[in-house]
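In the design runs reported in the main text, the only information available to the sequence generator was the tokenized backbone. The following block is the verbatim input for one such run; it is reproduced so that readers can re-run the procedure and compare outputs position by position.
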């Protein structure tokens, strides 16, 4: 099988680096989302308590 227009190794490494950065950002945002969901649940429980629900 012949590869047409192969990327130089340096470009492949750069692409891999960019993918790794994006994956790290996704993981960070997922963690932040989970924290916000937990904070939201605590606030909702507090509001319910204060309203006597």
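Verbatim output:
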């Amino acid at each position: 099988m012949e590869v047409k227009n192969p990327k130089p190794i340096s470009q492949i490494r750069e692409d891999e680096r960019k993918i790794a950065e994006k994956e790290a950002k996704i993981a960070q945002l997922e963690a932040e989302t989970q924290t916000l969901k937990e904070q939201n649940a605590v606030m909702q429980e507090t509001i319910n308590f204060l309203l006597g629900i």
